Amino acid sequence: MSAPDDPRVVAAAAVLRARGVEGPFALALVAGTGLGGLAEAIEAPRIVPYGEIPHFPAAGVSGHAGRLVAGHLAGRPVLLFQGRAHAYEHGDAAAMRVPLGVVRALGAPPLLLTNAAGSMLPAAGPGSLALITDHINLSGLNPLIGEPSDARFVPMRDAYDPALRTALAAAAGRSGVVLHEGVYAWFSGPSFETPAEVRMAHRLGADLVGMSTAPEVILARFLGLRVAALSLVTNHAEGFSDGTPSHGETQRVAALAAQDVARLLAALLADPGFAPSP
Ligand code: HPA
């Protein structure tokens, strides 16, 4: 069963079409902390601030611009969400529901989410990239709480699309970018995790910790979008090194790793075999 049409999404998509933002797109991207600079690589950009799109959230975190940018990357049309709304801002795990609904309304291209994360993988230190293979929801939240339709019972097997993951791993190989892999544990934040929480997440099978992405993957699957997610490791998770995470460090390190993400994306999009969803 697929998600019903949402009048808020219809209104938002109508405004975007009137501003010249129209599919088909080869890829939709959500730029996490430090990755907003990807927008500068987009050619012939059409930029619409979230504040000018009905029902869009404000991206209220420093380092998140809050703009939709449509244009070309490596010669292919892409839709970039420069900044996201997080559940920890207002307690709304469905804060990205309208933006992701717009992805479906504008042709349902594959969706690539990016985030900053703490790592529990010894080989993946600050500055590394990791492909998320699955998640563990430790937040107690879910973006589909309150959704009345039976589409809310979303299966989560292979939620992180295996074919997209294979394409990303191949693109990493072609572009010389080392891509680790791991399970992401979603904590609500905004406080960082305690060392005991990180030890618990590790014992449960997590490799990465962060405060975003998992609710967007749930929403994407609800909407029938193919989705993959990439973590920029900005720090060792609390207790996994002598240092302690901070928002400033997260922004600085993510901005450095952004160049690797740009190379990886260019290699992905340059592959003629990488086709948008039907
Ligand atoms: N924990 C949660 N979120 C994060 C971290 C972390 O260690 N680093 C960057 N985002």
TrEMBL record:
Superkingdom to which the source organism belongs: Bacteria
Gene3D superfamilies to which the protein is assigned, alphabetical: Nucleoside phosphorylase domain
Q: Which residues form the Nucleoside phosphorylase domain?
A: 27-270
MF GO annotations: purine-nucleoside phosphorylase activity
Q: Which residues form a coiled coil?
A: none
Q: What's its EC?
A: 2.4.2.1
Q: What CDD domains does this protein map onto?
A: PNP-EcPNPII_like
Q: In which pathway does it act?
A: Purine metabolism; purine nucleoside salvage
**Signal sequence range:** none
Extract one GO BP annotation from the record. nucleoside metabolic process
Function field: The purine nucleoside phosphorylases catalyze the phosphorolytic breakdown of the N-glycosidic bond in the beta-(deoxy)ribonucleoside molecules, with the formation of the corresponding free purine bases and pentose-1-phosphate.
Query: Which family, according to the similarity comment?
Result: Belongs to the PNP/MTAP phosphorylase family.
Q: Which NCBIfam families match?
A: PNPH-PUNA-XAPA, PRK08202.1, PUNP
Q: What is this protein called?
A: Purine nucleoside phosphorylase
- Look up and give the organism this protein is from: Methylobacterium oryzihabitans
Q: What is the lineage of its organism?
A: Bacteria, Pseudomonadati, Pseudomonadota, Alphaproteobacteria, Hyphomicrobiales
